[in-house]
C-alpha cells in the first residue's frame, strides 16, 4: 500500500443547507508517478471530487463522509495550519481559467515569488530568485525582468496558464490536481501546454489528477481513467481498457459521441440530459438514458465491481456487456462521404477585408457557398472566422470592403439597412445559447419574433409554424411556454436553431454553436444540423475551431489564420492531405482517441 | 407546457435507426426536457424580498401611511379649515390632538394633509422614472456621441441639489403644483438615467440583443421589448429610493412655503405653521414630522429588502 500516494475512500459531498448530494461514494487511488484522468460532463461532480483532494469545497458544499488519504494521512482531519502548508507544498492545484486565477493587480513576479516565500522555499531571496528563473525555464517562458514585471492581462491565455502551471510546480509537490487546464485555449496552445505538463510530470515524477470533459485530451495524458456520471464513479481502468474495452454503457456512449478527425461516421449524441444534483433518479443514475437498462437498474445502485484486472465498472449488466462488442452500433456516415444534392451558387465573397477600429481582421477573403452545402470555416481564436461570419450577416460594426453577393445581389453594410428578404434568407446562430435567448421571453415569444417580422400570419398559422420548426430540431411543442432558464443548454441551442428556421432561411450561419455544450449534446446538435441540410436544402456556414467536427458535418472546408484564408477545398482534400503548413499543424495538434 | 406536466424520460433511449422521421427523433431526444420547471425569476425575487424582516416592516408601515392618507378625509371629525377652539389649545374632547396656530383641529388636518405628500411624491417619482429610464436606455444603446450628449446634459441638472433646482423653477413661475411635481421629476431623471444606462450597457452586450438586430427588429422595440425587461430589478430599487427622496423634497417644499398653499392641509405645511409653539402644543408639529419620517423609512426599508433579494441571490445548484 506504500505505493498509493493518494487514496479517496467513499467520499460524499453534499450541499450544506439541503443535504443534496453532489458526489457520493467516490473511491479513487493514485499511485506514485501516475496520471489519473477524471472524466465527466458538466454537473457530474468531477471538479468537486478533485477539490476534495485538497480538502477544499466551494461555499455551501460540505464533505459529509469519506476519507482522503495523502501519504497515509487523512487530509480532511488536518488543522487549517496543516492544510496551508500541505496545499502548494505537497499537493498543488491548477484551476481552469488562468485569467481568473491570477491576481490582475499584481505583477507575475510578485505572484510567483509569493508561492515560494509562503512555503519557505530555499534559504535566501537569492535562492528563491534562482528557483523562479528555473520555473520560468521549465514552462518555456522568458525569465527576464521585462517579462516578469508584466501584469497578467499583458500575457496571452497560453502564457497565463504557463504561469499558473509554474506556480503549481514551484515547490515540487508530490501531487498536482489539474482542473480542465486547457479548456478555452486554442488547439495549438492546448497542445503546447499539454506537452509542458506531460514533460514536467515525467521529469519530477509528480502524480497528477487531470480533470476534464474532453476524452481526447485524457487519451493523450492519462495513465488511468475514471469516468464520473451524476456524482458517482461509473468506470475506472487503464487508458487502454477505457478506450478500447469500455464496459459501462455511459462510457461507451460517451466515446461514440466524441468526433474524430479521421473517423468516417458521425458522432452520436446521448439522448436525454445528465440529471442535476437533487434530481438524480433512484438506482443507477444513468438508467434513464441507457439502452441496456433492466428493472433492477431503476431501484438499486450498482456497486463498483471488477470487470477485468485493474478495471472496475458500476453496472448491473457488466457481465453481459463485457462479452458483447465494445462500441455501440455504427452511426450514419459523415456528410462528405454521402451523396448530397447541391444547388447553384448562393453566397459569394470577393476580396472582403474588414477592420476592428484600426486593426485589420480580414484580409482579401474569397469564398463561395452553394445551396444544400455545408462549408466549414476553421481557425483558431483571432483568425478572423467570426468576423467573417458577422460580415456576411451584417453584424460587423467596423469598416468592411469588398463585395458580398447573395443570390446574385450585392449585400450592403449592416443588417438593419438590408432589405427584409435578405435578412430573412440569412440567419445567424450564436455561440452561446445562454446569452442568445432573452431570459425574459418564453420560447413561443422568441420563435414568434422572426415570424412576426417576416410573415403576416394568423395566430393558428404562427403556432403551426412554431411547432413545425421545433419538430425540425427534435423538440416537442410543450417547451413553448418555457423560459430559457427552464430548459437545458442543448435544448436552448436547439430553440435558437428553431428560431432561425422560423424565418425559412436559405443560409444558416452557425458560429461555434457547439462550443459551450457537453460532448454528448454537441453530437446531438451536429446531428440535427446535418439532417436539416438533407431535408430542407439549406446551406450552412459552420464556424468552428474543432477540426474533428468539421469532418463530421462539412463537405467543404476553409482554413483561416490571421484574417487570411490559408487553405480551401473539400473536406477530404483538406483533412486528408493538407497542403498548408498551418493546416498540418492544426491537424497534428488536435488530440485524438486511439481507435 | 400545455398540460403543466414534465414529459417523462424516454424509457428505452436506444438509438433510432437512420432514416427516422423528425417525430421519432423528437421522441428519442425529448428526455432532455427533464430540466426542472423553476418558477419565474420574478416570483423568486419577490419571495426572497418578502422573506426579509425589514421588507415586512417597510411594507406594513407604508400601507399604514397610505391608508391614513387615502381614508383620512373620510373619517376626519372636522373639516381641516374649521375653527374648533383657541389657537394652540392642548388636546381635549373637541380636538383629540389639540388645535393649531389658527385654532383648527390638528387631527383633522393630519388626516387631510397626507394625501398631497403621498400623491405628489408618487407622481414626481413616476415622471422622474419615465424620463430617466427612457433617456438611460437611449444613452446606453445609442451611438457614443448621443450617449455623451444625453449624459452631459444630465450632469448639468445633477450639478444643482434637487431642492435648489426646484426652488429655482418655482421662483420663476410661482408655487404651482404641476411645476413642483415636474421639477422634482426632472431633478430625479439624470440619477435614474445613470442607473438605467449602466444596466443597459451591460444587457446590450448580450447576443440576444444582436440576434434581434440581425432580423431587423426596430430600435424602439429592442429598447423596450428586449432590454427593458432585463433591467427591471435595479430600476425597481431605484424607484423606491427616488420615492423616499421625493417625499422628503415635497415635504420640505411645503415647509418652505413653496408647496401646498394655506389654508389647505399638508404635513409639511403644518410643521411650518406650528413650529413657533413647539413647546406649548408639540402634537401639531411632532405628528406630521413622525408621519413623514415613517413614510420615508418605510419606503427605504422596502427598497433595501428588494435590493438585497436582487443582489444577494445565492441560488444553490439544483436546489
Summary?
The complex is a heterodimer of chains A (595) and B (319). Chain A is of the alpha/beta class and 595 residues long. Among the domains of chain A are: 83 residues, no CATH class; 254 residues, P-loop containing nucleotide triphosphate hydrolases (Rossmann fold, 3-Layer(aba) Sandwich), CATH 3.40.50.
What does this structure look like?
- The complex is a heterodimer of chains A (595) and B (319).
- Chain A is an alpha/beta fold.
- Helix content of chain A is 34%, strand content 24%.
- In chain A, the strands form four sheets. Chain A has an eight-stranded mixed beta sheet, sandwiched between helices.
- In chain A, helix 7 (157-169) runs parallel beside helix 8, helix 15 packs parallel to helix 17 and helix 17 (489-502) runs parallel beside helix 18 (519-536).
- The radius of gyration of chain A is 26 Å and the shape is globular.
- Chain B is mainly alpha-helical and 319 residues long.
- Chain B has two domains: 1-37, no CATH class; 42-311, Orthogonal Bundle (MetI-like fold).
- Chain B is built from 13 helices and no strands.
- The longest helix of chain B is centred in the C-terminal third of the chain and has 29 residues, at 283-311.
